[in-house]
Amino acid sequence: MRRFLISAAAAVLAAVSLVPAAQAADLEKENVTLAVGGRVALYYLPLNIAEIKGYFKEEGVNVDIVDFQGGSRSVQAVVGGSADILSAAFEHSITMKASGQNITTFALMGVSPGFVLSVRPDIAENWEGMSSLVGQPVGVTSPGSSTNKMVDLLMLGAKLDPSDVSIVGIGAGPSVLAAFENKSVVATVQADPATTLLEQAGLSVPVVDTRTPEGTVEVYGGPMPAAALSATTAFVEENPKTVQALANAIVKALEYIDSATPEEIADVLPEDYLIGGDKALYAKMLAKVKPSFSTDGLLSPEAVDTAYNALRVYNKIVRETDNLDLEATYTNRFVQAAHGAQ
Question: Which of 278, 288, 303, 335 gives 20 to 30 Å between its CA and that of 295?
Answer without folding.
Answer: 278
